[in-house]
Structure formats: C-alpha cells, structure tokens
Amino acid sequence: MQTAAENSQNPSLLVVGCGDLGAAVATHFAKRGWRVYGMRRSAAELDGVDMLTGDVTQPHTLTGLRELRVDYVLVVLTPGGFSDERYRAVYVEGTRNVLRALDTRALKRVFWVSSTSVYHQNDGEWVDEDSPARPTAFSGARLLEAENLIAASGLAHTCVRFGGIYGPGRDRLLRQLRGGQCSPLQPPRYSNRIHRDDTVAVLQFLLESAARGVDLQSLYVAVDTEPALLSDIERWFCDYLRIDYAALSPDAPPARGGSRRCSSARLQALGYAFIYPSYREGLPSLLAPVDAALM
Fold first, then answer.
1. Residue 146 in contact with residue 89, Cβ under 8 Å?
2. 208-262: per-residue pLDDT in tens?
3. CA 158, chain centre distance (Å)
4. Cis? peptide before 187, omega within 30° of 0
5. For the packed helices 94-101 and 138-152, what is the interaxial angle rounded to 10 degrees?
6. Residue 19 covered by a domain
7. What gap in Å lies between CA 291 and CA 172, rounded to an integer?
8. Beta strand 228-229 with 190-191: parallel, antiparallel or unpaired?
9. Within 13 A of 138's CA, how many CA atoms are on the CB side?
10. For position 291, what pLDDT does the model report?
11. Segments of 192-292 assigned E as strands
12. What is the CATH number of the domain that holds 158?
C-alpha cells in the first residue's frame, strides 16, 4: 500500500468505521485529493477510498493498519447493540485495539467520535467542554472510558461529543408524532440535537482545520445553536406538520439521555457555521420530497 511519504503533496487519512458518517467523511476527502483509507467490518467499496476489512473487537483483523503511515485517523464506532457488554467491547476495547495497531510515527492527530451522554447533569444545566462528566449510565461511562484511553495514549487528539443525531433515516420524532404520540410534559426535558449533515460537516471542518495548521483543542461539544425543551420542539413540529399537538397521547417511550443544555460555543468560535442552526431549519429535512411539497 502507498504510504503518506509516497503521496506527500496531500494529507492522508484513515477512517476506522465507514458507516454512514465515516463513509461520508472518507469520500469527501478522497474527492479533494487526500489519500484516504477506510476500514469496516464487512467488505465494501467507496469511490476513491482504499478499503480494508477489520473488526475493532478482533485485534488479529487489524494487522493491516500497521502498514499505513497516515497523517490523521478518524474513529467512528457503532456498538451494534445497546448493552454494557457491547459498549465495552467496541468503544473501550475496540479503541484500545486500534491504538495498539496504528503506526503512529507520522500521525499528527486522532479524531474520535463521542457523545454528550458522558455528562451526568439532569436539571437543565448548561454544560460545555469544561463541565464535569460523571456518567451514571453504562453508555456514557464506556464512552468516557474510551476518551480517557485516547488522552492517556500521549497522541495529539480531538474527541467530539455529539448530541442526538437526526436527519433522513433518523426520523424517530417524525414517526412518533405521526403515530399519535408525544413525550410527557413532566418532568421537563431539554434536548440537544445535531443534524446528520452537520455531524459530517463538523468532522470535515475539524480535519481541514488540522490540515491548515490550526491549533485544535482536545475536546469539542457538537450540538446545534439552540438546545430546547422537547415539548417545545414537538409543538413546533406539529404546527409545521399540521398535527393537533393537544390530541396526541403523552406516552411516547422516553428517549435516552438526561436533561441538560449543551453549548457548542467553542466549536463556533473556531469558525464552524451550522448548516441547520436549530430544529426549525433541520426538522423539515426529515420529510420526503413529496411530503415537503404539500407543506
């Protein structure tokens, strides 16, 4: 395989986890002339990307990473199940396995996708990168454990804590409201969201910033500019969809996560401008084109 030294005019990137988000980032940079490698559990092809097959929970499948000498690594993992066992295997042990498998001699920075679920605050508090994180649920605890592994590695790194990702194909709220359900009004619950397209764009922005020599922080919170009460979001979307909010049954299954207001001020100060600054711009994208034409 070609190394970064053999293709030194443009940066090189390895994306570990080429699902929806990772694949979008990988192909973005491949189109811009970067040397891009991608890895996923099953064989796949992406335009312009040199693909490898590997499972982060199986160290013997990661030996091919040792042959790569890249500038940047982006790790986008998915647990494949909501259990402590899966979160530990994928996020904690999987991250440990990837770090051990990498050739880090030319590595400039590792980017790792995390979640705002690492925060424990649950009473509407504002939180940012400097807020304490003491998760009580296994999901946040394992993600924080993985973040700490990366910090302890000594490698230059940036962890990005994303809020709840929504967008086409991630339309739980739309299906819930159209199904006649809304969330309970009590206790009040704040929601922190980010559109799928902004999720991809944030990762692209941070990688491009690193390649330009921008001094990045080790942690960024990535949520849109307006955390809001879930009930306010549902009321607004019902009005947009011409659904009678008052007629809905307030017994929708509770979403994961607590009630806090996350700030992405650090990310915005770096220069990132959201494609969908709030739910008002983003939620209509959940509608199929034929539905949107009827609004």
1. no
2. 999 999 999 999 999 999 999 999 999 999 999 999 999 999 988 877 778 999 9
3. 13
4. yes
5. 20
6. yes
7. 16
8. antiparallel
9. 13
10. 58
11. 193-195, 219-222, 228-229, 261-262
12. 3.40.50.720
Backbone torsions φ then ψ of 221, nearest 5 degrees: -95, 130
User: E strand or H helix at 295, and its extent?
Assistant: none
10-32 pLDDT tens trace: 999 999 999 999 999 999 999 99
Please count the residues of the chain: 295
Question: Residue 220: which domain range?
Answer: 4-171+192-227+261-276
The structural domain count of the chain equals: 1
User: Is position 161 within any domain?
Assistant: yes
Q: Quote the tokens at residue 187.
A: 């206790």
Contact in structure between 70 and 109 (CB atoms under 8 Å):
no
d(CA 97, CA 103): 12
Note the pLDDT of residue 43: 84
**Residue ranges in 135-191 assigned as alpha helix (H):** 138-152, 172-178
Asked whether residue 237 is domain-assigned, the answer is: no
In a domain, 167, yes or no: yes
